[in-house]
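Hey, quick one: can you model this chain's 3D structure?
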Amino acid sequence: MKKIIVIGGGPAGIMAALTAANGGAEVALWERNKSLGRKLAITGKGRCNITNMADTKDLVKNMPGNGSFLYSAFTRFSAEDTWDFFEQHGLQLKVERGRRVFPLSDNAHEVVEVLMQALHEAGVKIEYNLRAKELALQNKQIIGVYDSPGRLYPADAVIIATGGVTYPATGSTGDGYALAAQAGHTIIPPKPSLVPLETVESWPSEVSGLALKNVEMTIRDQDKVLDKAFGEMLFTHFGLSGPIVLSLSKVVTAAAEMGRGLTALIDLKPALSEEKLDERLLRNNQKFSRKHFINSLDELLPASLIPVFVRLVGIDPHKPVNQLTKEERREMVYMLKSLPLTIKGPRPISEAIVTSGGVQVKEINPKSMASNLISGLYFSGEVIDIDGYTGGYNLQAAWSSGYVAGCSVFEE
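Sure thing. Here's the predicted structure for all 412 residues.
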């Protein structure tokens, strides 16, 4: 019976351990924390966006960080396979907007409990508070793993699934990079992906906690549009967060590395053209013609955003609405369609949801997740240089790559 050590008790490591054990291996799952799935339990604001019901082509498309590397893995273990796995283990699921899949209970802890039960049933030995220090190698072949005190644990194969360096409090501190580098692998320097953004302007702190739905954000480098996204965003005490901000953060991070500052333009009324919006403002001004300007915007904007908007358009807040000029109305249209913010840069990598960077994909066989350098060494999940947009894509990458690695310990 093959002895397998899986390093890392996140989604990729759990799936790899389950698959290897169900295939007949003796599997030990090493977790440096005192419990499994700590990061998984806080994903999706505690709801856990398990996957996205996209086909292989769309899964790859939504993994801008080396998505093509995962084509084979997504084919072998698809979003439908993920759905079937959890339902077969008793977890009821639902599909929400954007094909995102959540547990019916909206409770991420139920996902962790299901995985724990599956590991128990498969006979996986979970080793808590055990940290890998070094791979044991002989003639470019894995023979085991040394723990932090230096004890050797023999193994026929090792799967590294330690994640990236986001949310270090959950145990993601980059241990896998050091292990891979020791084996001769190239590590693409980690940087934040899916990360909130800081703004130069301080006014977002005045509306901190305000979520806007159905808005469009455009990221510009002077006159050049770099990217845009439609959906939900959130103002914070430091700037911007929320789904569309996280999706757009990749281009911001790349620009920040080159020392370029960018601008975010928020279209608060993307369903209306400038002409239609001007007509809407005319009707609004007629309806509230006897009010002061600051008291006439309740049907156009969230209450907390009104004082900020009034200040930005530069109109006297106590000016009677029936005295507003055409030029002032034009400025309102512009601000509603292009609310500007200067991007200072991404938040620290420790606050990112996903890490970009990791073990170079050219040094891993995409069909098996096996190292091209060391026999018996495999990788899965975020420790690899792969990353995707928000919406369940990164977790699907974890499930798929973990499944392939777990299968491959028998096939290689």
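One thing worth noting: Residues 393-411 form the longest helix (19 residues).
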